[in-house]
Amino acid sequence: MITAGELYTYLNGFAPFETAMDFDNAGLLIGSEQQQSDAVLAALDATAAVLQEAHEKNIRIVLTHHPVIFRPIKNLLSDSIPYLAASLGITVISAHTNLDIAPGGVNDTLAECIGIREEERFDTDCALLGCCRQPLSCKDMALHIKSALSVQGLRYTDNGRMLHRIMVSCGAGGSSVGLAKSCGADALITGEIKHHEILFANNHGIAVFDLGHFNSEDMIIPKLCGTLSKQFPDTAFIQADADTDGVHYI
Q: Is 103-210 in the same CATH topology as 2-98+217-239?
């Protein structure tokens, strides 16, 4: 059994909520710190399917990466996710950009999974600069990422060079392309990048690997469940079966 307050306090110890970026809304967002539960359901997003899964499994606390409430609420309609969580009596804690930049957090884990050795951190940009274990062509890097992350596919550009210095920025990190240029990076690996940012990268000889937002972050959920299970052995930390972005590749 764990309380939401105990979970929040532990998360705050290694990924302080005060370090979340200004635009963010991380923390205990729905429910009460006194809420107790025998298990915690963890997911990237508090979708309706994830909340229903928690309800069916009699789990009263849901831990998400993306904030269940991001912008100020001007109404609370019956078909909204916050209304559903509240009506089901589910407390939701969201650890977002504070977890992105935490040591061993989302960005570090993405780099580790791909095999990028960190050399420099840029926490204000949620980015890190590192090098790969061995230089790879763009195509070989794409194939390596696909295999390492067990994803169905990804987008990439080819700058025609072997890749040495790599910038990693999980989630919507396409805006880090300017930082990648200033750092002399050969490539940017991210989860989301805009068209004009790809053109900028092309113009400056930077290869881009666009994994999809979900694919660039979902590896943190099983890692987080493992960490929390060791800290709270009397509580089950479960990765939600319904945690998916619903994207198909053809």
A: yes
Digit-coded pLDDT (tens) for 112-146:
999 999 999 999 999 999 999 899 999 999 999 99
Q: What is the 3-state secondary structure (H, E, C) of the chain?
A: CEEHHHHHHHHHHHCCHHHCCCCCCCEEEECCCCCEECEEEEECCCCHHHHHHHHHCCCCEEEECCCCCCCCCCCCCCCCHHHHHHHCCCEEEECCHHHHHCCCCHHHHHHHHHCEEEEEEEHHHCEEEEEEEEEECHHHHHHHHHHHHCCCCCEECCCCCCEEEEEEECCCCHHHHHHHHHCCCCEEEECCCCHHHHHHHHHCCCEEEECCCCCCCCCHHHHHHHHHHHHCCCCEEEECCCCCCCCCCC
pTM above 0.90, yes or no: yes
Classify domain 2-98+217-239 at the CATH topology level: 3.40.1390
